[in-house]
Amino acid sequence: MLVLDGSYGEGGGQLLRSALSLSLILKLPFKMIKIRAGRPKPGLQPQHYCCVEACKKLSQARVEGDYLYSQELFFSPEHSPENKVYTFDIGTAGSTTLLFQTLFYPLALSQGGTLVLKGGTHVPYSPPYHYIERVYLPVVENFGFQGTITLERAGFYPKGGGEIIAHIKATRKLKIPQFPEKFFPQRIHILSLISEDLPSHILERQAKAAQAILKAEGYEGEIFLEKVKASSPGTMLLVYGEGGPLRAGFSILGRKGVPAEEVGKRAAQEFLHFLKTQAQVEEHLGDQLLLPASLSLLSSEEKTFSYTVSKLTRHLLTQAWLIPQFLKEISIKVEGKEGEKGGVILERR
């Protein structure tokens, strides 16, 4: 049986989520020890526990250690997920988007399905809903994975209370895409978002600050303003670009005491910094592409797939270690140093 050290590398919840996804896809049992052992609050927190229970429900898995704060977990899937409606409530401001990403590939590679996910939709340390909708899903569609999501209600920290609905199509054929040598934005969008209980001037201040930063470097950004229903007040500014099959996006969540202009400015600056690296993929997408690329390479006529990433993160390095633990036919080589621009090379053995 596959035994994984949950404290390896980044040592956080992503190790567990990726292991659960791969276990469901391959019907391969695993045991994980030292789950989040190096974190201030080790073990399964509510959002991780919900993820385990969701995967258990999808596959009718045999599970041991599925309780709050557990640092060891045995997980053995029994069945492939069925095409039906699954509803999961994290019960906190835990990330619905990370739960979505965990369940997306097992459902896509089975019969498809619908997810109703309740919790946080725009919360720290996770991709906000609009990043998933406008950056992540359009890029993974190039590999053959298709899904649509809608925002029923936004969920900001600390109350959460958001809801997203995702419709995931069964994947018929996986493929390896051809990406341009570097990301070049043909269009740049500025999405300014606030909860409906906040004054509208925040929307414009965030957006115009981002637009001014982009314009100073010769880029035009089209502004979109959106007010959303939410249980807790919150704001977000997302700058994202489209470049052929590629997308890139950078978001900043507003915080009490931080001027709206600073939120917009920071998101635009991060986007511009990425463009200057001349990489194909930004740092967040860098680790999120490893799983769909590995799965696609398994069934493709191609034997290799590679891309450059603006910044090698510990998340990426950890994913590059984890995936070949399950997919023995795939090797992942990372060129470069953590924190710097680098390259990722996947090979099918």
Automatic annotation (TrEMBL):
Any matching Pfam family: RTC
Enzyme class, spelled out: ligase
GO cellular component: cytoplasm
Reaction equation(s) it catalyzes: a 3'-end 3'-phospho-ribonucleotide-RNA + ATP = a 3'-end 2',3'-cyclophospho-ribonucleotide-RNA + AMP + diphosphate
GO molecular function: ATP binding; RNA-3'-phosphate cyclase activity
Active site: 315
Residue stretches spanning the membrane: none
EC number(s) stated in the UniProt entry for this protein: 6.5.1.4
Keywords: ATP-binding, Cytoplasm, Ligase, Nucleotide-binding
Domain RNA 3'-terminal phosphate cyclase positions: 8-328
Subcellular location: Cytoplasm
Reported function: Catalyzes the conversion of 3'-phosphate to a 2',3'-cyclic phosphodiester at the end of RNA. The mechanism of action of the enzyme occurs in 3 steps: (A) adenylation of the enzyme by ATP; (B) transfer of adenylate to an RNA-N3'P to produce RNA-N3'PP5'A; (C) and attack of the adjacent 2'-hydroxyl on the 3'-phosphorus in the diester linkage to produce the cyclic end product. The biological role of this enzyme is unknown but it is likely to function in some aspects of cellular RNA processing.
PANTHER family: RNA 3' TERMINAL PHOSPHATE CYCLASE, RNA 3'-TERMINAL PHOSPHATE CYCLASE
Family of this protein: Belongs to the RNA 3'-terminal cyclase family. Type 1 subfamily.
Record HAMAP family: RTC (MF_00200)
Protein name as annotated: RNA 3'-terminal phosphate cyclase
Gene this protein is translated from: rtcA
